[in-house]
Amino acid sequence: MRLRRRQVEYQRLSRRALRLLIVPICLLSLSAVLPTFLMRRGAGPDLFDLTPASPRVDGYLLVAWHELERGYQSLKNGEGLFPGAPARALGYMSEGSEHVNAGQSIRQFILLPDSGGSGDSGQRFGDRMIEVHLQEGKEIRFAPGALVWVRGAWKPLPGNPNGDRPLYVLTEATAESASTTEIAKYFH
């Protein structure tokens, strides 16, 4: 009889210990997976393969992300973007080499063709990034993965297309938020 009570008590304690172990493991797993899921769920469309419906908008050359790959033919002979050209790019806001908190006022950020890679600098390529330098006195609130329009003076940089440093810069730039409905208006 005593042995039976001990076995019942042991089983009850074992179930309780198991519950106390499983709940924190589940919560830790959920906290690791949930941010990635939410980031991907809110990710906007990839802009890399889109072609501008018109080469110019409001006097600015419209950037086609796929044309930025080094070696792409449209970048030569003045047919495409050239140093100093007024350019307009649609992309997703990301932090550069320095950490920036969401909501912080900034004058410099990286523009990417997809929002999924905005948090992972290990997945970036130099010819798929544009460094943005806003005009003196102009700032924007940092919103990682936000779709934005940027206008400024185009500047290509030397470097490794497979490297982790941007190979393009928009200087004296302005930036404003954009909506996904604008993608269909300006690209196909």
Task: Give your account of this protein's structure.
The protein is an alpha+beta fold and 188 residues long. It has helices at 2-41, 181-186, and strands at residues 56-57, 60-62, 86-94, 105-106, 108-112, 130-134, 140-141, 147-156, 168-177. The protein folds into two domains: 1-41; 56-186, OB fold (Dihydrolipoamide Acetyltransferase, E2P), CATH 2.40.50. The model is unreliable at 36-42 and 73-78 (pLDDT under 50).
Number of strands: 9
> What is the percent of helical residues?
10-25%
| Distance between the ends | 80 Å
> Element order, helices and strands?
HEEEEEEEEEH
CATH homolog superfamily of the largest domain? Nucleic acid-binding proteins
In total, the number of domains comes to 2
Summed over residues and divided by their number, the pLDDT gives a mean of: 84
Number of helices: 2
